[in-house]
Amino acid sequence: MIAGKQQLQQSQLFSLKGSILTLSILTLISFTYLSFKSLRPPLPLSPATPQLTLLPFTTTSTPPSPARIFASKKENNVGEGEDDNDEDDDLITDVYHSPKLFKLNFEEMERKFKIYIYPDGDPKTFYQTPRKLTGKYASEGYFFQNIRESRFRTENPHQAHLFFIPISCHKMRGKGTSYENMTIIVQDYVDSLIAKYPYWNRTLGADHFFVTCHDVGVRATEGVPFLVKNAIRVVCSPSYDVGFIPHKDIALPQVLQPFALPAGGNDIENRFCRTSLGFWAGHRNSKIRVILARVWENDTELDISNNRISRATGHFVYQKRFYRTKFCICPGGSQVNSARIADSIHYGCVPVILSNYYDLPFNDILDWRKFAVVLRENDVYDLKKILKNISHDEFVSLHKNLVKIQKHFQWNSPPIKFDAFYMVIYELWLRHHVIKY
Ligand SMILES: *[C@@H]1O[C@H](CO)[C@@H](O)[C@H](O)[C@H]1NC(C)=O
Ligand SMILES: *[C@@H]1O[C@H](CO)[C@@H](O)[C@H](O)[C@H]1NC(C)=O
Ligand SMILES: *[C@@H]1O[C@H](CO)[C@@H](O)[C@H](O)[C@H]1NC(C)=O
Ligand SMILES: *[C@@H]1O[C@H](CO)[C@@H](O)[C@H](O)[C@H]1NC(C)=O
Question: In angstroms, rounded to a whole number, what is the distance separating the alpha carbons of residues 416 and 123?
C-alpha cells in the first residue's frame, strides 16, 4: 500500500512537473500571442538582437501611397485584427524584420515618448539651432529643426524619457573652429549641464543623447569619456572602428537634400530604363574605392569612373545615371557612410554596399537584404559575377522593396510619420528601455 502510495505520489509529482512544463509553454505561447495583440507590447524590441520572425506577414505588391501611410490613425484600432485596415498594408511587408512589432512599438512611441532639450547655450553660436538644411550634413540640421516642431519635445524634464544635448558640431565647423577647440567647447558645455542639472548624474549620461553627422564632430565629443561610453551617439559614421556601439548608438542616415530630381521607382516595366548594370563615380579617397576603380574602370557593363561627376554638372548628369542603372555601388570613402546610399535609394537604384562591418541605418528595423546587396570589400573582385548572377525576378523584388522604404530615408520639415526623423526617434525609443531612472 505504502509503495503504491509512493508510486502514486511519484506519478503525481511527474504529472505535476509535466503540467508545470505545459503551463509554462502555454504561458509563453499566450504571452507571445498577447504581445502581438495587445496595445502595449510588454517587451521592448531589443535593438541589436535578432527579432522574432514567427510573425505572419503578407507581401503587398501595391506601391506605397503616401496618403495612406500618412493618414492619421485612430488610437484604439491598433492591432485589432489581421487586416484591420488598408493603411497598414504598407507596413505588413517583409522589408521589416518584424512588421507587427514595429507597428505596435511605433504607435506606443507616438503616444508616449518625451524628450527634454537642454535650454542652455546661445543659439547664435553652436547650440539649439542648425546651421543649414542642405549639404552633406543636412541630416544633423534636420534633426535639430524637427525635434523642436515635433510632438516628442517636452518642456518638463520630469516627463522626459531621454535628454537631448543640443550642441551642433556642424555649426562649429561652419565657423571654422579647430578640432582641438571643438573638443574643449563640447567638454565645457556638457560639464556645465552636469553641474547645473541633476539629470546627468543619475545615470552618468545613459539617458542622454547627442546628434552629429559631422565626422570631426563625432571625434570632438571624445573629451567627455561618459559621453562616448554611456550616452547614445546618433552619428553618420557608424563604422565599428570609430567606436560605434550598435546596441547603444544610432546610425544616422546621411542624406543630401534637397534631391535634384524626383524619386525613381516602379519604372522597371519600361525596358529602356535601368539598362546599365552597375554605376559608381566618385573620389578615390579610400582603399576600397581605389581597388574598385582599378579593377573595373574599363569594363563595358559596369560603369565605374574614378572621376567624380560634379553634382552641379548641367542637366543633372550624375543623378540621371542613378535612374538608368540597376545597381549603384556604394563603397565607403573617407568615412564608410556617404550620401550615395540615400541617393541610390531615392532614385530607385538598388544600393550595393561594399564595406566591412558597417552598421547600416535602421538595420534593426529594416531587412537590408530585401532591398540592397550587402557585400564585403573582398567581393569587389567578383562584383560583376555577383551582380549578373542576380536574376531579373530577384532584381524586380529588390527594386520594388526599395521603393517601399524610400520614405524612411527622406527628411521633411515639419517631419512626416515614418520619415527619417521618425525612424531616428524610433531608434531612440527602443534604446530608452535600456535605462529608466
Ligand atoms: C582656439 O581657441 C583659442 C582660445 O580661445 C583661440 O585663441 C584660437 O584662435 C582658437 N582657434 C581656432 C582655430 O578656433
Ligand atoms: C554631478 O557630479 C559631479 C561629479 O561628481 C559634480 O561635480 C556635480 O556637481 C554633480 N551635479 C549636480 C547637479 O549635483
Ligand atoms: C584601362 O584603360 C587605360 C587606358 O587604355 C589603361 O591605361 C588602364 O591600364 C586600363 N585599366 C585596366 C584595369 O585594364
Ligand atoms: C549565384 O546564385 C545562386 C543562387 O541564387 C547561388 O547559389 C550562387 O552561389 C551564386 N553564385 C555566385 C558566384 O554568386
Answer: 25
In the block, residue with C-alpha cell 548594370 = 277
Helix ranges (H only) for 97-156 are 99-112, 138-149
What are 251's strand-pairing partners? 235
Q: What is the pLDDT of residues 325-383, one digit of tens each?
A: 999 999 987 776 778 999 999 999 999 999 887 889 999 999 999 999 999 999 999 99
**Which of 178, 183, 187 for a ligand 1 pocket mutation test, highest count of atoms within 8 Å of Cβ?**
178
Q: Domain spans of the chain? A: 111-256+415-432, 276-409
What predicted TM-score, i.e. pTM, was given to this entire model? 0.79
b/e map 133-157, b = 16+ CB within 10 Å: beebbbbbbbbbbbbeeeebeeeee
- In CATH terms, 276-409 corresponds, of 3.40.50.2000, 1.10.10.10, 3.40.50.10940, 3.40.50.300, to 3.40.50.2000
Query: Which residue type is seen at 95?
Result: V
User: Which residue ranges have their beta carbon within 6 Å of ligand 3?
Assistant: 294, 297-298
Q: Which residue(s) pair with 181 in the sheet?
A: none
pLDDT tens per residue across span 126-163: 899 877 888 888 999 999 999 998 999 999 999 999 99
Closest approach atom of ligand 4 to CA 394: 5
Spatial strand order of the sheet with 373-375 comes to 302-305, 276-281, 325-331, 350-354, 373-375
